[in-house]
Design goal:
The structure is a single chain. The chain has a 6-stranded mixed β-sheet, with helices on both faces. Strands 2-1-3-10-4 form a 5-stranded mixed β-sheet, sandwiched between helices. Helix 5 (121-138) packs antiparallel against helix 13 (327-340) and helix 6 (177-185) packs across helix 12 (299-321). It has helices at 2-23, 47-61, 82-88, 106-109, 121-138, 177-185, 195-203, 214-219, 245-249, 253-261, 265-287, 299-321, 327-340; strands at 33-38, 66-71, 93-96, 143-149, 154-157, 171-173, 189-190, 209-212, 228-230, 238-243, 293-295. Helix 2 links the parallel strand 1 (33-38) and strand 2. It has a domain at 30-150 and 237-340: Bacterial extracellular solute-binding protein, family 7 (D-Maltodextrin-Binding Protein, domain 2). It is built from 13 helices and 11 strands. 48% of the residues lie in helices and 14% in strands. It has 345 residues and is α/β, with parallel strands linked by helices.
């Protein structure tokens, strides 16, 4: 009796072990995949830890079969090239500013029209929710993962800008092609420079002003070369996180599902949130620095800016019509998404 008593728990354990192994998801047997993530902002930028946390969650969800290495600071290529880097497989995922290539992504350019977004967190869920209807067509060379925005940015300049007429004759580094159209319509000159190059452009007098979010002004050292800061949520820059199609196609069905589960509006907001907090806090940091003037606009001045922005929307509409989309429907959809996610101005 004693022998059989001791044998039975062992048999039961074996049966349970066999049953458990039968239920282990396919992910456990998936071949290991390593993905290269490319970010062009400096290593200390708050976006990088958020992207790393996203990758860590993918590793956990894939039972360790998908691991990632993050390359910040333009290690794999220049900021302007990141879309093509994902397309060509130089990076498996890359962080893209679509506005760095004017005219290439006309639908997405609508999100950088002035006076639309009130915030960066909910605004990121809103832009992603909206753009999913257009991404497969407009960014067909890559697998779209999600879109997001920074907290609203504004003019930071060497001379004070109060009214739209003040931009005439100025050299401005615009954040996006849409903001660039506004500068041109006001009689200013656009100076193209990626974020990492911007301080040098301002320092050398190649540019007089920049449109930039608040926290990054200090991060990129631009606070050393500008002193006037217009306190108004003028614009946001749309960004996308995109994947190389070949890398995705080579994954197992289970691994693809893990990637799909991490390419959502919820993840867009999660990844954007730390950066949004950082940018929002930048306003107070700059205001506390001696030698800097942070100034608000009157209702009349703000109204003048809204009127000045109208031609930019007309230009954007023309570019969208050429793609076969209805610009009014596109903009109505964006505004509806902003209202839904409580991020409309």
């Amino acid at each position: 009796m004693q022998t059989s008593f001791h044998r039975r728990p062992g048999a039961l354990a074996l049966t349970l072990a066999l049953a458990a192994s039968a239920m282990v998801p396919a992910l456990a047997q998936d071949k290991p995949v390593q993905i290269k993530l490319s970010s062009w902002v400096p290593a200390q930028h708050p976006l990088n830890p958020a992207l790393q946390a996203w990758a860590d969650d993918i590793k956990k969800a894939s039972n360790g079969s998908i691991t990632a290495i993050l390359f910040p600071s333009e290690q794999l290529g220049k900021a302007f090239d990141h879309y093509d880097m994902a397309r060509d497989g130089i990076a498996d995922f890359s962080y893209v500013n679509p506005g760095y290539q004017p005219g290439r992504f006309p639908v997405m350019a609508g999100a950088s029209l002035p006076f639309l977004f009130a915030n960066g967190k909910e605004g990121s869920a809103a832009i992603d929710d909206w753009y999913r209807a257009y991404a497969a067509k407009e960014m067909k060379d890559v697998k779209y993962c999600f879109a997001f925005v920074h907290d609203p940015g504004t003019f930071h300049s060497r001379k004070k800008i109060v009214l739209p007429t003040d931009v005439k004759g100025m050299k401005v580094r615009p954040a996006t092609s849409t903001v660039g159209q506004l500068i041109t319509s006001l009689g200013g000159t656009n100076v193209q420079a990626s974020a990492p190059e911007s301080r040098d452009m301002l320092e050398r007098g190649v540019a007089d002003a920049i449109t930039f979010p608040w926290g990054s002004i200090g991060l990129f050292g631009i606070d050393k070369v500008v002193k006037y800061h217009m306190d108004v949520p003028l614009y946001v820059t749309p960004f996308v996180w995109v994947m190389n199609k070949g890398k995705y196609d080579a994954m197992s069905a289970g691994q693809k599902k893990v990637i799909d589960d991490h390419c959502t509006s919820e993840w867009a907001q999660k990844v954007a949130a730390p950066w949004a907090d950082f940018e929002f806090a930048g306003r107070a940091r700059i205001a506390a620095q001696s030698g800097h003037e942070v100034y608000k606009l009157t209702a009349e001045q703000l109204d003048a800016w809204r009127k000045a922005a109208a031609p930019s929307e007309a230009q954007w509409s023309d570019s969208v019509k050429k793609t076969g989309e209805d610009p009014k429907a596109v903009m109505d959809a964006l505004k509806a998404s902003l209202a839904k996610h409580k991020s409309a101005l």
